[in-house]
UniProtKB/TrEMBL annotation:
Enzyme Commission (EC) number: 6.1.1.20
Cofactor binding note from Swiss-Prot or TrEMBL: Binds 2 magnesium ions per tetramer.
Quaternary data: Tetramer of two alpha and two beta subunits.
Similarity comment: Belongs to the class-II aminoacyl-tRNA synthetase family. Phe-tRNA synthetase alpha subunit type 1 subfamily.
HAMAP family in the record: Phe_tRNA_synth_alpha1 (MF_00281)
Signal peptide boundaries: none
Name of the featured protein: Phenylalanine--tRNA ligase alpha subunit
GO BP annotation list: phenylalanyl-tRNA aminoacylation
Gene3D superfamilies on file: Bira Bifunctional Protein, Domain 2 (3.30.930.10)
Keywords, alphabetical: Aminoacyl-tRNA synthetase, ATP-binding, Coiled coil, Cytoplasm, Ligase, Magnesium, Metal-binding, Nucleotide-binding, Protein biosynthesis
InterPro entries in the cross-refs: aa-tRNA-synth_II, aa-tRNA-synth_II/BPL/LPL, Phe-tRNA-synth_IIc_asu, Phe-tRNA_ligase_II_N, Phe_tRNA_ligase_alpha1_bac, Phenylalanyl-tRNA_Synthase, tRNA-bd_arm
Binding site for Mg(2+): E256
Annotated Pfam families: Phe_tRNA-synt_N, tRNA-synt_2d
Amino acid sequence: MSATTFSKLDEMMAAIEAEQPGDLDALEQFRIKYLGSKNIIKPLFGEIRNIPNEDKKAYGQRVNAVKEAAEQKFQQLKQQLEMAAEDAAVQDIDLTAPGEPMPLGSRHPIALTMNRIIRIFERIGFVVADDREIEDDWHNFTAMNTPEDHPARDMQDTFYLQDSTEMLLRTHTSSVQARVMKHTQPPIRIIAPGRVYRNETVSARSHCQFHQVEGLYVDEGVSFADLKQTLLYFAREMFGPEAKIRLRPSYFPFTEPSAEMDVYLGTDTEKDYRLTKGTGWLEILGCGMVDPAVLENCGIDSTRYTGFAFGMGIERQALRLYDIGDIRLFFENDVRFLRQFAAEF
Ligand code: PHE
C-alpha cells in the first residue's frame, strides 16, 4: 500500500518534469492543473492518512517536494515565456521606419527681438534685472520724480487695479530702475526687459500692452557722452555697422537732460518708408541723465554718482526685423503666425 502510494509521487514528479508548456496560455493550463484550487497534487496530500506512522514523515516531505517542483517550474517558465513575449513584441518594431516628427514650439518674435537686444548689452557688461508688472504707485511714478499732481502723469494713461489708487500695471520698465537702485549701490549696470501697459486705443501701430527694454548705468563720472556712445554701439549692433542715430531733445520727469533717439533706416523700401512715415528715421527710445532727485529717492548719493538711463520700445524694432505690418499680430497668438519663427532661437 505504502509502496504504491510512494510510486504515485514518483509518477507525479515525472509528469511535472515532462510538461512542456510552449506559451503563456499553455502555462496557465499547467498552473490550473498543478497549482490551481482543484489541482491534481492535492489528493496526494490526503493520502497521508493511509500511510503508516513510521513513513508519514518521509511521505510528507516528498509530497511537499512534488508541490515545490511544480511551483518552481511554473515560476521559471513564467519568467522565460514573458521575456519571450516581450522580445517578440520588440521584433515587431520596424527600426528602419522614419521617426515621428516631434512637434517643436517656436519663440515669439517679441522674445526673439528682446533676446537680441539683451545679448548686445550683455557684451558690454550689462546684466538683466527682472521685476514685477503689477507695481505700486511709488516705484512707477513717485520714485521716478513724477509726484501725484505732476502733469507728466497725464502722458501715460494708467491701468489701476480695481478699487486701488496705489497698485497699477506698470506703464514703463523705468519702475525697475527704482527697484534696483533701492537695494544696490553703484556701480549699477542693468537692462530690464519686460511688458508694460497703457490705456491706449488698439490699432495697427499701438496697443494697450507692449514691451520695453530699460537700461540704467550709475557710477562715478558717468556722462552724456557715455550714453551717446552706448546707444551708438547698440544701433550698430542691432541695425548694421552703417547705422546712423540722432538724439532729439525731449522731456522725461526722471532724466535731465532728456532725449529721444531715432535710427536712420532710409526710405528705400516701402516697408521702411511706411514705418518711418516717409522720414527715414525710426524713433526707438527715450533716454537721458538720471535726475539727481531720482538717485536720492532711491538712496543713492547724487553728489558722488551720476547715471544715464534709456527705455526702448520693442514692438517697432520687431516689426522692422521680421517685416510685420501690424502690431496686433504680436498679441493674437495665432499659431499660423507664430510658427513662422520656428527657425530662430
Ligand atoms: N520710461 C520712458 C518711457 O516709457 C522711457 C525712458 C526711460 C526715458 C529711461 C528716459 C530714461 O517713455
